[in-house]
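Q: Hi! New to this. If I give you a protein sequence and the SMILES for pyridoxal-5'-phosphate, can you show me the bound structure?
A: Yes, paste them in.
Q: Okay, here:
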Amino acid sequence: MSSLDDFARGKLEDLDQRSLRRRLVTTERTTDGRAFRASPQGGRRQLVSFCCNDYLNLSQHADVKKAAIAAVSRFGAGAGASRHVTGNHPLYEELETRLARFKETEAAVVFGSGYLVNLGVVPTLAGRRDLLLVDELAHACLHGGAQLAGGEMVVYRHNDMNHVREVLEERRARHRHALILTDGVFSMDGDLAPLQALTALAEQYDAWLMTDDAHGFGIMGDGRGSTMAAARRSEGPVHVPLQMGTLSKAVGSYGGYLCASRSVVDFVKTRARTLIYTTGLPPSALAASLAALDIIERDGAWRDKPLAHARLFAELVSLPAPESPIVPVILGHTERALDASALLEERGFLVTAIRPPSVPEGTARLRFTFTSAHGESDIRRLAHIVRSEILPKAAA
Ligand SMILES: Cc1ncc(COP(=O)(O)O)c(C=O)c1O
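A: Thanks. Here is the predicted structure of the protein with pyridoxal-5'-phosphate bound:
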């Protein structure tokens, strides 16, 4: 056996022992929020999925699919090279104009994915002389972007504005620029960042505020995302000059965006390595995003359903009212989360267990995500099982 295989096997054994090994399970999503999943006993079974970020089920919408198919027929399956090399597809221009208009910013730039936005934008705007403050529960790719920037990185306690203030007070003067990085909607907990308080601190200390709105865009603030929602809720100003998000969740397609001022977007387009040194998105993904935006802009009732469904579930299970369509049930030990997920699968539901390092040690959980496509009877059935079979064991 080579030392390379030795290394990989040793790592796998260690992960197996700690129940932390992840395995890909063949799963085929259907058009109505269900999924056919390979069963450990062989064959496959149909499950109702409560772990999908396709919040509005737009990946399955007839108009979205039609737009993607038309783009494949007209333009082909792939982009061929980087946007800077083969030339910028006209659908990019259309999508970026559309995103900026919808988000009410001067400009937008579309990347290959949300992950690539954060890995590209943060190191473009910040370097060794800068201070980066990152919420401890912000998504892995915001942490990754901050690490790549190479400046002084401080991970602040989740949503703790006193901690942010302390760090800025103590260290801001020693750095050229400061960047505050947070999720708008936290992906594993579903809670929101205090954007008004962060705006005030950013202004006071001349820091640049960036939100990752992967889970807010398309749903909150009339679909415009968590910044718009916070602006409506808050009494003071909410100003987020750097708003990123994904086109892969509520939009149902693929890609990521940054909405910002014209000068920031132009600078990012010429410097971000994850935009320059990677192939452009397939035109079908751009066309699908455009068609999905049409639906998001016009159909408020559909947009409101994920949160309404999450609230119904939380009420039935006696959990606090959620602020987003993400509802965590924290079970603690990894094995508990795995057992609870297996039990739900036996009862016909797909809810994957979330384990470290996706969440902090000792907080393994079930993470329920609610979509517009869910039926009330499925939500009630799910809530009954969680209340009667999962929560009593969690408390034991
Ligand atoms: C908060 C957050 N940011 C960024 C991403 C990455 O986006 P994408 O899937 O488009 O790469 C995700 C999830 O995938 C996420 O949950």
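A: The radius of gyration is 21 Å. Let me know if you'd like me to explain how to read the tokens.
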